[in-house]
Write a structure and sequence with these properties.
The chain has helices spanning 21-36, 60-76, 87-92, 94-100, 114-122, 136-140, 168-171, 180-192, 216-223, 244-252, 269-275, 281-294, 313-326, 353-378, and strands at residues 12-17, 40-41, 50-55, 81-86, 104-106, 128-129, 150-154, 156-157, 176-177, 197-201, 231-235, 259-261, 299-306, 330-335, 382-390, 396-400, 406-410, 418-426, 430-435. The chain has three domains: 12-129, Rossmann fold (3-Layer(aba) Sandwich); 136-377, pyruvate-formate lyase- activating enzyme (Alpha-Beta Horseshoe), CATH 3.80.30.20; 382-435, Beta Barrel (OB fold (Dihydrolipoamide Acetyltransferase, E2P)). The strands form five sheets. It has a six-stranded parallel β-sheet, with helices on both faces. It is of the alpha/beta class. Helix 13 (313-326) links the parallel strand 13 (299-306) and strand 14.
Length: 446
């Protein structure tokens, strides 16, 4: 990466994150890094001296959107400093500089060096770092000072599964787990900063382990003991890492919410083998049986890919039949997108775009049907809702149910409160509720 012309050091910044929840977490930490250097965050990219594009490399359109954003930012303000972070930065490195003329390129394992890279770029020096040191970035990140009622906490990064369609092992590196004590300390700091709910993040979060033989279930039970923490979630999991101890935690730990995101990707065993998923249709269903036995009210979520190379109509029908059997409460679905460097990109039998479009439409119709059915079945339930933000109407607040459903209601309860409600009506993406007044506290006669 050649040296560029010097620029005025930025005083304001804006971070725009694409893709997964891990990127949201990373974007928040990069913002904290820049704020610790005295820079001021802006609500939009146009008014910022420095724009950090925190990128995703999972799908082709996400990558092209980054280049589109760079072009628009350069056109609007040629003097603006632009940093590309995240997985596109890791995968394409100097190609981004050649193609888009950005100032800083930093990979997802090196973003703790962002302030130095920005300073180097301001002096006209080369500012590219795509090294992947083992978790050293967490030691360099500033303490969390103020967060909302829900917070992300990265506990594990990288992947050793090498699914044939996925770039994560190449952009995030091998599976590595953060130390137990470090995670617990950060969780306590997040609660002190205002978090009531915590979502543990990892590419394969349920592969978290440490040298003392502890697994994710032990970590969850430790977090359960933190006063002030009301809810625990985790994502994303792999079916092969759903241990019985973790399943038992869903039964035993009240703070662990009844929601599980467990991607399956396809319903055909042949397609799963071609994907190198290392589980079968039957083994996936047996895991779900065990989870439902431990926590009968659990809401299940999944990921699906349609149009994987070689997928026949009959094999796609197997995916639809799996959806019919599981009845997911939520799910994410995508058309297969070939990523350079992955084995699937050069496989025979690439599916025509129009075939993928038609299959995705049928798949999403089934998933939307089941999500609406799950929401409708919730009507009449009483549950706790964590208030996260204000709604559009006067007095309206929005929050999440234990099953990760969006709920809106009229309440005077402030953000961060947990209120008891009755769910009154359901749509495909949210529910309405009424607050259940707390019973009056009786005072004993003097």
């Amino acid at each position: 990466m050649g040296a560029a012309m010097s620029k005025t050091p930025p005083r304001t910044f804006h971070v725009k994150s694409f893709g997964c929840q891990m990127n949201v977490y990373d974007g928040e930490r990069m913002a904290e890094l820049m704020a610790a250097e005295g820079l001021t965050a802006t609500v939009d990219a146009a008014s910022a001296d420095l724009v950090v594009l925190n990128t995703c490399h999972i799908r082709e359109k996400a990558t092209e959107k980054v280049y589109s954003d760079i072009g628009r930012l350069r056109k609007d303000d040629p003097a603006k400093m632009i940093a590309v972070a995240g997985c596109v930065a890791q995968a394409e490195g100097e190609e981004i500089v050649r193609r888009a003329k950005v100032d800083v390129v930093v990979g997802p394992q090196a973003y703790h060096n962002l302030p130095k890279l920005v300073a180097d770029a301001a002096k006209g020096e080369a500012a590219l770092d795509t090294d992947m040191p083992v978790l050293s970035k967490f030691d360099a990140l500033p303490a969390r000072r103020k967060v909302g009622p829900t917070a992300f906490l990265t506990v594990q990064e990288g992947c050793d599964k090498f699914c044939t369609y996925c770039v994560v092992p190449y952009t995030r590196g091998a599976e590595t787990s953060r130390p137990f004590g470090e995670i617990v300390d950060e969780a306590k700091a997040l609660v002190d900063a205002g978090a009531r709910e915590m979502t543990l993040l990892g590419q394969n979060v349920n592969a978290w382990s440490d040298d003392d033989g502890r697994g994710l279930h032990d970590l969850i039970r430790a977090l359960d003991r933190i006063a002030g923490l009301a809810r625990i979630r985790y994502t994303t999991s792999h079916p092969n890492d759903m241990t019985q101890e973790l399943i038992d935690a869903h039964r035993d730990v009240e703070k662990l919410m009844p929601f599980l995101h467990l991607p399956v990707q396809a319903g055909s065993d042949r397609v799963l083998r071609a994907m190198n998923r290392s589980h079968t249709r039957d083994s996936y269903l047996r895991v779900l049986d065990r989870v439902r036995a431990a926590r009968p009210d659990i809401a299940l979520s999944g990921d699906f890919i349609v149009g994987f190379p070689g997928e026949t109509e009959a094999e796609f029908a197997e995916t639809l039949s799996l959806i019919d059997e599981v009845r997911h409460a939520q799910a994410f679905s995508f058309k297969y997108s070939p990523r350079p460097g992955t084995p699937a990109a050069t496989m025979d039998g690439q599916i025509a775009p129009e075939v993928m479009d038609e299959r995705l439409q049928r798949l999403q119709e089934a998933l939307n049907r089941d999500q609406l059915a799950f929401n409708k079945a919730s009507v009449g339930r009483r549950c706790a809702v964590l208030i996260e933000r204000r709604g559009k109407l006067p007095g309206q607040m929005l929050g999440k149910s234990p099953w990760l459903q969006s709920v809106h209601l009229q309440t005077d309860a402030p953000i961060g409160s947990i209120v008891e409600v009755e769910l009154l009506s359901a749509g495909p993406n949210s529910l309405t509720a009424r607050e259940i007044p707390s019973p009056p506290v009786s005072v004993a006669a003097a």
